[in-house]
Amino acid sequence: MPAAMNYKHIYHAGNFADVAKHVxxxxxxxxxxxxxxxxxxxxxxxxxxxxxxxxxxAHKSGEAERGIQRLIExxxxxxxxxxxxxxxxxxxxxxxxxxPGSPALIASGLRPQDRALFVELMPAEARxxxxxxxxxxxxxxxxxxxxxxxxAFLPPExxxxxxxxxxxxxxxxxxxxxxxxxxxxxxxxxxxxxxxWYPIRSASQRSMVHARFEALRIPKMLFADLAIxxxxxxxxxxxxxxxxxxxxxGADDYxxxxxxxxxxxxxxxxxxxxxxxxxxxxxxxx
Length: 286
Ligand SMILES: C[S@@+](CC[C@H](N)C(=O)[O-])C[C@H]1O[C@@H](n2cnc3c(N)ncnc32)[C@H](O)[C@@H]1O
What we know:
The protein is α/β, with parallel strands linked by helices. The chain has a single domain, classed as Rossmann fold, CATH 3.40.50. It is 40% helix and 19% strand. The chain is built from eleven helices and ten strands. The strands form two sheets. An eight-stranded mixed β-sheet has the order 5-4-1-6-7-9-8-10, with helices on both faces. α1 runs antiparallel to α10 and α3 crosses α10. The radius of gyration is 18 Å and the shape is globular.
């Protein structure tokens, strides 16, 4: 059983890392929609459907203020972010009242033939997702351990689709748990698209995370890293990382441009970077 947790995503919803992760998620969903055949989405650490950006927790942290709210002010004109802004219903000059979490974004990308499963450990969060997301018979929410769900529900009968693994990294062994779960899930479903979010705190920690992914020896892995603070700036999170297994065609260029737009819009002046590159393709090709 997973350990008890104190993590509450409402403090972080709509921060730059959420935006970066969701921009990558939306691109992959869009790619799946290009074919008519049904797809399946499993969100193993789903959180709730929507986050109230007026909630005291959101005000207290100020993360959405420096994240999505600032991005709307600075970057509504960025063409690379237009689809994302449209999906979250952001409008020029208007503050966003509620921020859609990954289950809301996924549900908005499902067609009648598609299906999604949201798994969340905290009952109150899972119930909120269940309450706020219109299922139309395509969506199921389970209270439970996301890592156990990866074992129980993969591979799906649809044979195409994606998995989002977005744990809170509260405990020191979360990275290890996530990598073990990915290795096992990839063995079960080698053609699935897998998206894993990871925090970036410093250059050495980022290299360590990349090396641990690389050690899995999965052939097609794309990392998309966006930092908006200097390393070890004392802000908790210098950057946001997204590892994509089996990235859809065009993801490299799209994410490079979209993350550059986010960086330009909200990075601390002179700080941070964007790096989007294949982790293993070159080595495997030799
Ligand atoms: C970073 S938040 C998820 C945010 C969400 N994916 C989004 O993008 O909107 C992590 C979530 O994982 C939940 N959680 C923590 N441990 C879990 C576990 N073992 N299985 C499933 N959910 C878990 C937390 O309660 C929290 O809601």
